[in-house]
Amino acid sequence: MGVLSIKTWILLKKIYYVSTAFFLLLVMNSCDSQRKSEIDLIFEQTKKVEILAYLDRNQWEKEDNPDYFKLDFIKNNKVKINKKYLRNSIVLDSFQIKKLKEGLVNCQIENKELLCYDPRHLILFYNNENKIFGYIELCFVCNESHYSPNMEILSKCALRQEKLFKEFGITYFNDTEEEKVEFMKRMKEIKNRE
């Protein structure tokens, strides 16, 4: 077997790099295409989307939030949140649903290292029978979410929609001073009882 010339070696290297880049591009496009298809399937089932904003669940009374790590307030196709916690609620129109879908398809996922999980927002997906078939609860502070299993594909991108929520009319993103004072007062009372 003979020795390759420098020109041949350079040409083979270029072919290798171009073919590798082409292969990676195909794989990425395939993943994007599959992701888009899964999102399309979710939105084909979606008749209505509702967004709720509520007081951070860390501040709810224990009886209203018995297991912090479960969304116990979604039962029998109903959302049962004590009105004293609810801050905003909006049902999206068809234009807003389309805009939400575009935001979920075209997002850049960002990882944060905060571990607060102070959720204040919930996206509910309803089907043609007006039944909840999926949800995503969001903490925009630490970039974490809890979701129904069928919404995993949307969960990370939903965390990138804070600006869109504001555009839709959701106004509650931070606790008010009164809420902070009330929470600290309750924590002090609990500590004094112990």
Write the layout of secondary structure elements.
Blueprint: H1 6-45, E1 48-54, E2 74-75, E3 78-79, E4 86-91, H2 94-105, E5 121-126, E6 132-139, E7 144-147, H3 152-158, H4 162-168, H5 177-193
Antiparallel strand pairs: 1-4, 1-5, 2-3, 5-6, 6-7
Description:
The N and C termini lie far apart (84 Å). 43% of the residues lie in helices and 18% in strands. The radius of gyration is 23 Å and the shape is extended. The protein has five helices and seven strands, in the order αββββαβββααα. It has a five-stranded antiparallel β-sheet, covered by helices on one side. It is an alpha+beta fold.
Question: Which key features would you list for this structure?
Answer:
194 residues, five-stranded antiparallel sheet, two-stranded antiparallel ribbon, extended, 7 strands, 5 helices, alpha+beta
End-to-end distance: 84 Å
Strand content: 15-25%
Low-confidence stretches: 23-31
Helix content: 40-55%
CA-based gyration radius:
23 Å
Spatial shape: extended
Count the beta strands: 7
Average of the residue pLDDT scores: 83
Q: Helix/strand/pairing class, anyone? A: alpha+beta
Tell me about the biggest sheet? 5 strands, antiparallel
Gist?
The protein is α+β, with helices and mostly antiparallel strands and about 190 residues long. It has five helices and seven strands; from the N terminus they run αββββαβββααα.
